[in-house]
TrEMBL record, chain A:
It comes from Oreochromis niloticus. Coiled coil: none annotated. This is Electron transfer flavoprotein subunit beta. It comes from the Eukaryota. Pfam families: ETF (PF01012). Heterodimeric electron transfer flavoprotein that accepts electrons from several mitochondrial dehydrogenases, including acyl-CoA dehydrogenases, glutaryl-CoA and sarcosine dehydrogenase. It transfers the electrons to the main mitochondrial respiratory chain via ETF-ubiquinone oxidoreductase. Required for normal mitochondrial fatty acid oxidation and normal amino acid metabolism. ETFB binds an AMP molecule that probably has a purely structural role. GO terms for molecular function: electron transfer activity. One of its GO terms (biological process) is fatty acid beta-oxidation using acyl-CoA dehydrogenase. Keywords: Electron transport, Transport. The lineage of its organism: Eukaryota, Metazoa, Chordata, Craniata, Vertebrata. Heterodimer composed of ETFA and ETFB. Identified in a complex that contains ETFA, ETFB and ETFRF1. Interacts with ACADM.
From TrEMBL, chain B:
Pathway: Amino-acid degradation; L-leucine degradation; (S)-3-hydroxy-3-methylglutaryl-CoA from 3-isovaleryl-CoA: step 1/3. It comes from the Eukaryota. Catalyzes the conversion of isovaleryl-CoA/3-methylbutanoyl-CoA to 3-methylbut-2-enoyl-CoA as an intermediate step in the leucine (Leu) catabolic pathway. To a lesser extent, is also able to catalyze the oxidation of other saturated short-chain acyl-CoA thioesters as pentanoyl-CoA, hexenoyl-CoA and butenoyl-CoA. It comes from Oreochromis aureus (Israeli tilapia). This is Isovaleryl-CoA dehydrogenase, mitochondrial. GO terms for molecular function: 3-methylbutanoyl-CoA dehydrogenase activity; flavin adenine dinucleotide binding. Residues 39-153 form the Acyl-CoA dehydrogenase/oxidase N-terminal domain. The keyword Mitochondrion applies. The keyword Cell membrane does not apply. It catalyses: hexanoyl-CoA + oxidized [electron-transfer flavoprotein] + H(+) = (2E)-hexenoyl-CoA + reduced [electron-transfer flavoprotein]; pentanoyl-CoA + oxidized [electron-transfer flavoprotein] + H(+) = (2E)-pentenoyl-CoA + reduced [electron-transfer flavoprotein]; butanoyl-CoA + oxidized [electron-transfer flavoprotein] + H(+) = (2E)-butenoyl-CoA + reduced [electron-transfer flavoprotein]; 3-methylbutanoyl-CoA + oxidized [electron-transfer flavoprotein] + H(+) = 3-methylbut-2-enoyl-CoA + reduced [electron-transfer flavoprotein].
Length: 264, 417
């Protein structure tokens, strides 16, 4: 299978930053806060670049939907080895209302426009934890989907996938074109090397797209009422054996143990 | 949101430095690169190398200092080589990255922020050794030595100081006597960073003792050359993990083709190299000051006394302001001088001024950092003590503060001759 792979990369607040809720509870503080590429998107980019290095695909195109700053995220993808970038310019109110449904519509339209054989996404973003974009994109395109992939291998025009699910590992085989979402253990993303960073910035291979009526963004699909920080952790009750065993050891006398579920 | 973020923090790919694990809220104090006037490439560069150093080196920084050794040095050097970090100022034709001094400074600053000792070794390798080869080696020498130094397979060093010649380096006694196609070296060098590990060393020796400073020549010496050996690793106050030792030359034969630059003109090689050494090494204290802020400021917002977080008391606010403004002022001075050097405008006065100012401020900021943590700053569970011990070196190495003041003073004297 040769051809083009679209990789979706999202600009999110860096995983190491301490999140603070805005005083008016309308969201979290993003001004002046460090942002970087969503870690699962990094894994998706790495997988795409690996496929290109194995000569199983021809071109890796990184796509990001967002304001001007999303171009930094695309540059990171280029520095990791992507060939081209597409920045879909979404800013202001539209950006605040941008969610998985809108992004999947954009990706679906781009996939058709770019004649993509494969769409690689992170399984979810660490800011909204939606885990919807991959599935919705596949549905809109009527393509098979392989989500939570921890192993991907191409076999002719089919893809062998190992998915991490609650019950364990699921092995599936899907046709191409397809949508795959990357899980944590799919690979370990490479660090961009200095020469690559310089190259990616000099050859600014990023096209700017403005979403048009085909990829119309529905305003305010999901109304946001309030954002609050989680409550401070309270002390829990330990009903497991641990504390009981500790008491037994101390007093030397065994006590009647009532087995109940762990309270954490 | 929090479930995945916490899972990411704990996943095997990521390791958290000891300070944040201890509960100091938040990771680090952000660096405002717009105020610093960095280009987009340089901002991206800082982010990339910071990520690399935090993930690969930060978990080991404390242990490197405690044990006074860096067991993973060779592996780390190779990883830096793959990323193109070991030859930032070396031209692309030689296998380097072909960037400027400011880019080199950004990398060393971020490395120093994680481990000042490793950064010092890195500076000795990439600037003192590699950059001198870039500037003065002939084609044959570049071909022979550059590749492995740039990939990280070889470690580089530079030797000029002696047990009895530090500030007065021109009075060095290491003798290089011509014998046919060889020069025979006899004597010692002292205070040599990377001495125990280096495969390639640039050594300054006296080829003509009568001619005083006009009789110094630079040589390229390879590890394992008969007659060349290293003595005990020095047990230093700080920069522990950046191995320093004495070099011993006993009838060591170095081929004449290994002379770096012109014969007897070594002092020009040395002095012009020292300017750039001071410029690049000045990023060491900047990184240390940033690390002090990273450790102290979050602590001030966790520690409570008299019913509130101590960071809200005026005297602590004052301390934060003082530390921050010192760091910012030093950083702008350094970046400006670096930009000028990248334009080809080299000012010895400013290179000396930059490291003089940065080093003395770093010691002060490190002291303030310890004070912010109070008793906790005084125990080695927290890195503030390491920051102070590491910072002090920069007032001494690469020309003592006294020598730096002389250089600047004399530069003004010469305007009024």
């Amino acid at each position: 299978m040769s051809g083009r792979v679209l990789v979706g990369v999202k600009r999110v607040i860096d995983y190491a930053v301490k999140i603070r809720v805005k005083p008016d509870n309308t969201g979290v503080v993003t001004d002046g806060v460090k942002h970087s590429m969503n870690p699962f998107c990094e894994i998706a980019v790495e997988e795409a670049v690996k496929l290109k290095e194995k000569k199983l695909i021809k071109e890796v195109v990184a796509v990001s939907c967002g304001p001007q700053q999303s171009q930094e995220t695309i540059r990171t993808a280029l520095a990791m080895g992507a060939d081209r970038g597409i920045h879909v310019d979404v800013s202001g109110k539209d950006y605040e209302n941008l969610g998985p449904l809108q992004v999947s519509k954009i990706l679906a339209a781009l996939a058709k426009q770019e004649d993509a054989q494969l769409i690689l996404l992170g399984k979810q973003a660490i800011d909204d934890d939606c885990n919807q974009t991959g599935q919705m994109t596949a549905a809109l395109l009527d393509w098979p989907q392989g989500t939570f992939a921890s192993e991907v291998s191409l076999e002719g025009d089919k893809i062998n996938l190992v998915r991490e699910i609650d019950g364990g590992l699921e092995h599936i085989k899907i046709n191409t074109p397809a949508v795959i979402t990357a899980d944590l253990r799919l690979n370990t993303p490479r660090y961009a090397t200095l020469p690559n960073i310089m190259d990616s910035l000099m050859n600014n291979e990023t096209e700017l797209h403005k979403p048009n009526h085909r990829t119309s963004l529905c305003v305010g699909l999901i109304p946001l009422f309030e954002t609050v920080a989680p409550e401070d952790m309270q002390g829990g009750t330990d009903r497991s054996g641990a504390m009981l065993r500790h008491t037994v050891l101390q007093s030397g006398k065994p006590k009647r143990i009532i087995l109940s579920c762990l309270c954490i | 949101m929090f479930a995945v973020r916490n899972a990411l923090r704990l996943s095997s790919r990521l390791s958290i430095p000891a300070v944040t694990r201890r509960g100091c809220a938040g990771a680090a104090i952000p660096v405002d690169d717009v105020v610093n006037g960095l280009t987009d490439e340089q901002i991206q560069l800082r982010q990339t190398v910071r990520k690399f150093f935090v993930e690969k080196l930060a978990p080991h920084a404390d242990e490197i200092d405690k044990k006074n050794e860096f067991p993973g040095m060779r592996g780390f050097w190779k990883e830096m080589g793959t990323m193109g970090l070991l030859g930032i100022t070396a031209p692309v034709e030689c296998g380097g990255t072909g960037l400027g001094y400011l880019d080199h400074i950004i990398v060393m600053e971020e490395l120093s922020r994680v481990s000042a000792a490793v950064a010092l070794s890195y500076g000795a390798h990439s600037n003192l050794c590699v950059n001198q080869l870039v500037r003065h080696a002939n084609e044959k020498q570049k071909e022979k030595y550059m590749t492995k130094l740039l990939t990280g397979e070889h470690v580089g060093a530079l030797a000029m100081s002696e047990p009895n010649a530090g500030s007065d380096v021109v009075s060095m006694k290491l003798r290089a006597k011509k014998e046919g196609d060889y020069y025979v070296l006899n004597g010692n060098k002292f205070w040599i960073t990377n001495g125990p590990d280096a495969d390639v060393l640039i050594v300054y020796a006296k080829t003509d003792p009568e001619a005083y400073q006009k009789g110094i020549t630079a040589f390229i010496v390879e590890k394992g050359t008969p007659g060349f050996s290293t003595a005990q690793k020095l047990d230093k106050l700080g920069m522990r993990g950046s191995n320093t030792c004495e070099l011993i030359f006993e009838d060591c034969k170095i081929p004449a083709e290994n002379i770096l630059g012109p014969l007897n003109k070594g002092v020009y090689v040395m002095m012009s190299g020292l300017d750039l050494e001071r410029l690049v090494l000045a990023s060491g204290p900047i990184g240390i000051m940033q690390a002090v802020l990273d450790a102290a400021i979050p602590y001030l917002h966790v520690r409570e006394a008299f019913g509130q977080k101590i960071g809200h008391f005026q005297l602590m606010q004052g301390k934060m302001a003082d530390m921050y403004t010192r760091l910012s002022a030093c950083r702008q001075y350094l970046y400006s001088v670096a930009r000028a050097c990248d334009k080809g405008h080299f000012s010895a006065k400013d290179c000396a001024g930059v490291i003089l100012y940065c080093a003395e401020n770093a010691t002060q900021v490190a002291l303030d950092g310890i004070q912010c943590l109070g008793g906790n700053g005084y125990i080695n569970d927290y890195p503030l003590g390491r920051f102070l011990r590491d910072a002090k070196l920069y007032e001494i190495g690469a020309g003592t503060s006294e020598v730096r003041r002389l250089i600047i003073g004399r530069a003004f004297n010469s305007l009024f001759k």
